[in-house]
Design goal:
alpha/beta, Rossmann fold, Arc Repressor Mutant, subunit A, five-stranded parallel sheet, 11 helices
Length: about 230
């Protein structure tokens, strides 16, 4: 009896930058992935209803219909494939909007091959789960943060720079970095993108769960002895 062929791992790329499309296709082919490119959001929107497997790598800044509008259109169609958005470095607010619309991750341009492939492989091993279930788990994890760590996370989610967060909280930029590192460690993650994703999901969780989780939030302690 012939062995079954492994499922095709397909990445659908939507970006108006032809040179970048070519580069991404080469990276994905070398990693054993199938890449299908679309130069406009409209072209992908036409193809989307027939897609049942893979993930979408979506640029946010495009002429005509941008990535956020395409996400909105796809959601109205019941699109189920995981979405990763590509943003310009520092565009945290845009990334937050995309994740609120259902994106599973975001990566900032320019990105390394390792970061790109890590995000793609993670997306291909998951399906889009109901926001409520993920939101409950995210809220529990966010509730582990100290009050100061939560303030730093909120500032990062709002797109504030380290110096701006330091000014807002009347602490030094170095202290913000310490709280940020501790926040990532307490959440068990390594990147700002993951932290933002958890924060967005937690914000979408039912209010009663966030209230219960907050009762278990660590009080004080974690911020003591830090430089001001």
């Amino acid at each position: 009896m012939p062995s079954e062929r492994p499922p095709t791992r397909t990445v659908y790329i939507v970006d108006d930058d032809v040179a970048l499309l070519g580069s991404l296709e080469r990276i994905f082919r070398s990693a054993g992935l199938t890449a299908v490119s679309y130069k406009t959001a409209f072209a992908f929107l036409d193809a989307a209803p027939g897609l049942v497997d893979g993930c979408l790598l979506l640029d946010v800044l495009m002429p005509g219909m941008d990535g956020l509008e395409l996400q909105e259109r796809l959601n109205s169609l019941g699109f189920k494939l995981p979405v990763i958005v590509m943003t310009v470095q520092g565009e945290v607010e845009t990334a937050v909007q995309a994740m609120k619309a259902g994106a599973v991750d975001f990566i900032e341009k320019p990105f390394s091959d390792d970061v790109l492939l890590g995000a793609i492989n993670a997306a291909l091993t998951r399906t889009r789960k109901p926001i409520s279930g993920e939101g409950l788990e995210a809220a529990k994890r966010i509730a582990r943060l100290s009050p100061r760590e939560r303030q730093v996370l909120d500032g990062l989610v709002a797109g504030r720079l380290t110096k701006q967060i330091a000014y807002d909280l009347s602490i030094s930029p170095r202290t913000v970095e310490v709280h940020r590192a501790r926040m990532l460690a307490r959440l068990g993650i390594r990147s700002l993108a993951e932290a933002i994703r958890l924060a967005v999901l937690a914000a979408l969780a039912p209010a009663d769960l966030e209230g219960r989780a907050a009762n278990h939030r660590p009080r004080g302690g974690a911020s003591r002895g830090l430089p001001k």
